[in-house]
Design goal:
The protein has helices at about 5-15, 20-30, 35-45, 70-80, 85-90, 90-105, 130-140, 210-215, 240-245, 275-280, 295-320; strands at about 50-55, 55-60, 145-150, 155-170, 175-180, 185-190, 195-205, 230-235, 255-260, 265-270, 285-290. It is an alpha+beta fold. The chain is elongated.
Amino acid sequence: MKKTTRLLDMMALLEGRRGRSVRELADHFGTTERTIFRDLRDLEEIGFPLTNDEHGYRIMEGAIMRPLHLDVGERALLRLLVENPSVRKPSALARRLEILAAKLDRIAPPSGPSKLVLAGIDRSGPIQPGVIEAIEGAIERGEAIEMDYASLRSASRSRRVVEPWAIFHRSEAWYFVGRCQRHEEARMFRLDRVASVRPAGTLFDPPADFDLESFLGGAWSLYHGQGGEPQEVVIRFDASLAPLIANARHHEGERIERLPDGDLEYRVELRNLDEIARWIASFGGHAVAISPPELVARVRELGEGIIREHAATLKLAARTAKK
């Protein structure tokens, strides 16, 4: 019997009011008591708290939702989401998703391969074992964490104390957001840069008005800037890019106007300008920053850097060719 199937059957046995002893479970599944102890530990790790008394083990009352009735289409869509590679990449989530996928198969057997595919692009590096579980537990308890964190711009690690609020996947990587006690403000941290996590021993009250989507609302992709009011960004795209820009959605708050000459005027309000400056520069002159002045200067800086570095490369290639 596969372990996933055994765990599901064990859950069914432990849902009742009567407890089950380890010996009884071992006899039922035809395995050893040592294996049963490991299975019980795994059930608790994936979110099913157990109680143990003189009658044996059972799942704590209220820990399991009532049966959910799904039609074939709903089950197929949920299965598609469960199989999203970006969600399954962190091992802490993958273990739970295996159980969830097995539950879906018990509701109704698969009707064939899905016609839909989630790309699940994820560029995260390896996430250290136990990091996600530790942060999730701290969020649930309202407890600050102490972590060793690798800086983006250097190989050094620093010790941070953070009050974690939420874990999320965005811009092709896994992050968590919380109040950094060192900077006394909300910060985002990539999970693959967290070397270790431990309880800081202090409790906190998360902000009652915190909402992740609102928090990221002033960002082009991820970086929302630290404080400050949103600025209106204006970009002009030439006619060759009109279909690409007009027929796609790049930001919830974007506004697009087609100009008489076929060009597009693109407007959006953002707090941080670095990400959109790089986006504009990627179009190689077919997109022009109009305002604010800080954005124009940033795009120009990027462009001059590209020209400078590539000019040096071309000169080197020309000298090499002459030899």
